[in-house]
């Protein structure tokens, strides 16, 4: 069964990034959490069996973590490996 993947952009209240990141990593379905520079504080990579699973992980989990003030979700359609990208560039598909 194909997984449903998403990237979640997360804003966190000042001074709560570490605590929020740790809490988010403990949510089932969260694969990775990164602290980042830029317009958001954290980025989480999540995976679920279906869209209902994402509902449990994102609004039902990440958005309820203490300190999280906003989430924005990017649905993933296709994952590209380094080999696939190199082959596309060699074919002139850039």
TrEMBL record:
Endpoints of the signal sequence: none
Gene3D superfamilies to which the protein is assigned, alphabetical: 3.30.70.920
Superkingdom, taxonomy of origin: Bacteria
Transcription regulator AsnC/Lrp ligand binding domain: residues covered: 8-78
Protein name: AsnC family transcriptional regulator
Biological source species: Bifidobacterium oedipodis
């Amino acid at each position: 069964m194909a997984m449903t993947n998403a990237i979640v952009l997360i804003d966190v209240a000042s001074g709560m990034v570490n605590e929020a990141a740790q809490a988010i990593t403990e949510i089932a379905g969260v694969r990775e959490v990164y602290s980042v520079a830029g317009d958001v504080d954290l980025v989480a990579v999540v995976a679920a069996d279906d869209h209902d699973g994402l509902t449990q992980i994102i609004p039902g989990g990440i958005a309820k973590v203490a300190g999280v003030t906003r989430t924005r979700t990017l649905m993933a359609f296709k994952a590209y490996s380094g080999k696939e990208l190199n082959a596309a560039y060699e074919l002139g598909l850039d």
